[in-house]
Amino acid sequence: MAFEFPKQPYSGKIGTTTIGAGKRALTLGGEESYPFYVFEGKMPNPPKIAMEIWDYDPSKDWPAAAVEPFKEVISSPEAWAKKCVKDYGADLIVLQMKSIDPNGMDRKPEEAAAVAKKVIDAVDVPVVVWGTANNQKDEEVLKKISEICQGKNVCLSPVEEG
Predict the structure, then answer these.
(1) Which of 63, 64, 146, 49 is nearest to 97 (CA)?
(2) CA distance 54 to 56
(3) Disulfide check for 14: which of 31, 80, 97, 117 has CB 3.0–4.6 Å away?
(4) CA–CA separation, 159 vs 131, rounded Å?
(5) Given pLDDT bands bounded at 50, 70 and 90, which one contains residue 11?
(6) Superfamily assignment of 48-157 in CATH?
(7) CA-based diameter of the chain, in Å?
(8) Which residues of 49-58 are buried (b: 16+ CB within 10 A; e: fewer)?
(9) Is the full-model pTM beyond 0.85?
């Protein structure tokens, strides 16, 4: 008797979205089955690997083992992003905007947007810009980033419906 995979009926479908621009833009989603159940449905866009970088040098707060692979670039977010793509093959970069936190460094929106633009311009892979989950500050900063990065199809997060 041949083995048969048990079937889990799944009536949903994951929507698709494209992030980034140009030849390295990525289309994500589109699955019609449970994750990796390709024997039950389509998975037209395989998972991608993202690497996270921060918008400032976090080395004084991180353990040495976490800093070590990036020690020569960790003080420059754009160089850090390039290393993630070139040396580790990242399909996309997640830029954590940690410095905008009002309870931390409270970086101004214009300064934060300039850092984000440098990172986005430095790599040819899509970039996800992640705020601090402080709605007011994220609104100011992400709006500024979207203004100066028009046409790059940058993914901005987290966002909430008003």
Answers:
(1) 146
(2) 5
(3) 31
(4) 9
(5) confident
(6) Dihydropteroate synthase-like (3.20.20.20)
(7) 67
(8) ebbebbbbbb
(9) yes
DSSP conformational letter for 70: G
DSSP string, 7-69: P--------EEEES-GGG-EEEE---SSTT-TTTS---S----EEEEESS--TTTS-HHHHGG
On the question of pLDDT at 112 being above 90, the answer is yes
Across 84-94, average pLDDT: 98
Domain positions in the chain are: 9-45, 48-157
Residue the block writes with tokens 């992003």: 81
126: its two tokens: 């899509």
Please say whether the beta carbons of 139 and 113 come within 8 A.
no
pLDDT of residue 162: 65
